[in-house]
Amino acid sequence: MPERGNHYSSPPGRPAPTGVVFAAVIGSVMVLTAAVLFALLPGALSEARDFRAARPCAEIGGSAVENGDCLSEWPATVVSTATGPSNKAVTNWVTLDGEAEEPLFRVRMRGHGPVWEQLKPGDRVTVFSWRSAVWAVGLGELRQDTAEEPGRHATVRLAVGLALLIVGAVFLRGAGWLHRRRATRAPAVRAAQVFVPMVATFMAAAVAVVAATATDSLWLVLLIAAAGCAVAWTGAALPLRRSAGGRTA
Fold it and tell me: 116 to each of 26, 113, 130, 143, 220, how far by Cα in Å?
């Protein structure tokens, strides 16, 4: 008499139902998260375009200056510097005294240099602001962006969204592929059938992230990301077909 429970177990080499469900859930979460990021993207992209188009306040006047839509510069004095954790990362903070403009305010620097490495209490610096956001701090001829630089959030959302969309789509496709193999009682899944597509996927996601951080043109980012996906997955298909042909020979 056969043992109880064998009816529900997967034969050796066949994908387990838990693997199919896991891939489907992970892929769905990634794609939905990417959709949320893309939904928040238009406002950030609009802000980035406005910032790139802004002109120095000294060159214009009127309502642009009153609304802060121009690039303003004003002096400030370094009160103190500090380094502390923020979102599990080391962050450099500078407390400045803007005197008449804005007394005692704190900005978060982006990275460790070149201005941050030379700042000390009492230094006179130049503050660069736009729409009340301090986007850079200057010391002499040096200038360093802050974490509040307009457009940075758009870049991060676009890069993360593209990476999640690419990887999530592959997880969903993988879930369907595993489900079909279970239904057709296909041969055991070989390591190359999982490893090669995942390497190609991460390469495609890396290309999309680099494109999102390297250019401000949305259509160019999408074009490069699509080309990266096509090249990576085409390159992955060749060794898989060669391996499958060698196995059946």
Answer: 40, 5, 21, 9, 33
Q: Looking at 66-189, which runs of residues are DSSP E strands?
A: 72-86, 89-97, 105-109, 124-130, 133-139, 142-145
Spatial neighbors of 227 by CB under 8 A, at least 6 apart, are 207
Q: Which of 84, 80, 104 is nearest to 94 (CA)?
A: 80
Radius of gyration of the chain from Cα atoms?
26
87-131 residue pLDDT tens: 556 788 999 998 776 788 899 998 887 898 889 999 999 999 888
Read off the DSSP letter of residue 15.
P
The phi, psi pair for 36, rounded to 5°, reads -65, -45
Structure tokens belonging to residue 133: 């956001």
Does the model's pTM come out above 0.70?
no
* Interacting residues of 225 by C-beta distance below 8 A, sequence separation 6+: 162, 166, 204, 207, 208, 211, 212
